[in-house]
Amino acid sequence: QWQDKYDEALKYIQNALDIYEGINDKEGITKCHNTVGGIYWRKGNLDEAMEEYNKAFSVAEALNKKTLMSDILGNMGLIYWNQGDSEKALEYYEKSNVIAREIEFKSGESINLFNMAILNMEGGEFEEAQELYQKSLEMARELGDRGLEGVCLEGLGNVYRNFGNSDVALEYYKQAVKIAEEIGEKRSAAY
Description:
87% of the residues lie in helices and 0% in strands. It is mainly alpha-helical. The relative contact order is 0.07.
């Protein structure tokens, strides 16, 4: 069922892309390629997703659209992560984050920090992960992003569990569950 919705969305976006190309709207073209990349990612077509992200990035870079550039680099990091290349994923999240910090794109920066924290957790770099989760948490709270706040708290719980400090871990998990319940995030509330 979802597959059909993705295919339908691709048709609409292709129509929009044709229009943007017809009127030479470069930013619209970039956004379409970025969106198509996201759909391909959700469908599991990682090579096609990366191809679309590369197209989007080329145009965004030519236009010097820094917010788009940061978003697209983060999306490319996700593709590398899904392909099992954590090193390359981290490299792209860091590139995205440099731009996000430069233009004070706080939501992009907080998501990048969160993703880098997860990669550091997977690599056993728990202290680095703790620092990144903490920074992302602070930004999520500043932005009022309760969903990101909750997953950062969960991540910090995981860090402290790995440190062997189950009491502190439990406190973070309790805070994460409370937020999940408040925002109706059933998957996270199951913890």
